[in-house]
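WARN no homologs supplied; continuing
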Amino acid sequence: MTKKKPTTKKAQAAATTKRLIRIATKEFQSKGYAAASTEAIVQRAKVTRGALYHHFKDKKDLFRAVFIEAQKEIGRRIERESVQSDDLWQALVSGSMAFLKACTDPGLQQIVVIDGRSVLGWNAFRDLDETTEGGSYAQLQGCLAELIEQGLIADVSAEPLTHLLSGAMDEVAVWVSQSENPEQALTEAQQSLAAMLHGLKKQSGLS
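OK structure emitted
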């Protein structure tokens, strides 16, 4: 059964944007931002260079769109793990471990961990990390706020706590990516993260 082509200009534009992001994702994942070729992207997408720059200002703007989709994919992987348990504390732990594991996926690692900060700049990286709907930061903040509200972890402000944990996880994801033995590094990072999270527990209320 053949797919119907979009019939309106708006639908056609959306389809072209989606195709460019999909193809650009593969290009950035396999080659990294610096070596990625916009010419290869437009050829594979079967659009003109003018069409590319109609939808995106430049290569960096295209990468930004790819980065957002990568963040959403990490968020989906976190959610898949965290919803496995009805226990809120376990959801925090499982989601945090899933974040680190997702960041070892070669494609996601290249875009988010390796290229993200250097290409977008620190402020833009932070803004997108915090504002991407369904992303890891939003999920972490929501979970921590609920744990605090229920009196299950230390009674502190959720916002700075989210920044602390998110920053720590981002940093250790970079460390894992640079390790000579990524599999062992991931295990060690998850063990260290579990110990750090455990320090947030109140003495009663959680096992």
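Residues 59-198 form a domain with the Tetracycline Repressor; domain 2 fold (CATH 1.10.357.10).
OK
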